Amino acid sequence: MNVMSVEHIQKKSPVKKECEDAFILNEEASIYGVLDGATPLVCFEDESRHNGAYLAAQIFKNKMEQLKGGEGLSKAVEDANLHLKEEMERYAVQTDLGEERWSTCVAVVKVMDDHIHYVQLGDSMVLVEGEDGKFTVVTTDSVKGISERAKQKRAEGRKGGEEIPPESYYDIRMNKLRYNRRLANVEGGYTVANGMPEVMDYLDQGVIDRKGIQSLLLISDGLFHPELTLEETYARIREAGLETYVDELTDHLHKHSLHIDDRTAVWIKLK
């Protein structure tokens, strides 16, 4: 087995009722991941009082943790996404409205003898550390800049004669968030697992050569530091450890009155 050790951390946001992140530790199949359920804009809860963000992340966690060695990650994403769609239908969720859908970001890797396969959606990220000590971001944060792209899309729509409210309407946070959620898995929008078949068209997936890689870091956006790049974040985690980094980040966010999200990471050290 190529994996020497796996560390993980998960801390709930102080402003949330339950943690909407999840992590995957399927050691039998060498599959590891981080999932970040998107905080709902509606007040749905199931009979166990779980919201759509929690449920979406757990559906993907359960699927990935049940995988055996021979199954591919992209097929697993497709199956989990279909199950997510079926569960929303079972609860009569209005899936024609983007803000009603349950959704989760995805960052999952499968460590093989000579390569590493990854799948990713949203802003949960996959990073690698080379044996040369260089840190590299493998995946793309498709959520970054979504509000600016949304504003541009509205401007273009108005030019084209569409009836779209003035920008002052979208200065109201909930209106802006609702609009943004409707840009999931469309051109110029962002990617997320939310039961839409288009998820598979936008899935970021690839293969990394195992040679020269000494560790992998999977993080939800709750580990993003407002003053560090992701490469610098990884370097700090390597230097201080996951627990210390998360404590430092949380203190920094608290001190500057910034939002503290759920914070989840899986750190895989390879032989």
Could you describe the 3D structure shown?
With 271 residues, this protein is of the alpha+beta class. It folds into two domains: 222 residues, Phosphatase 2c, domain 1 (4-Layer Sandwich); 43 residues, no CATH class. The protein is 33% helix and 25% strand. The strands form two sheets. Strands 1-10-9-6-7 form a five-stranded antiparallel β-sheet, with helices on one face. A five-stranded antiparallel β-sheet has the order 2-3-4-5-8, with helices on one face. Strand 2 and strand 3 form a beta hairpin. Helix 1 runs antiparallel to helix 2 and helix 7 crosses helix 8. This is Serine/threonine protein phosphatase. It holds the Pfam family PP2C_2.
CA-based gyration radius: 19 Å
* Mean pLDDT rating: 96
SS-derived structural category: alpha+beta
Number of strands: 10
What name is given to the CATH topology of the largest domain?
Phosphatase 2c, domain 1
User: Which regions contain 5 or more consecutive residues with pLDDT less than 50?
Assistant: none
Instruction: Work out the count of structural domains.
Output: 2
What spatial form do the alpha-carbon principal axes imply? globular
Portion of residues within helices: 25-40%
- Order of strands in the sheet with most strands: 1-10-9-6-7
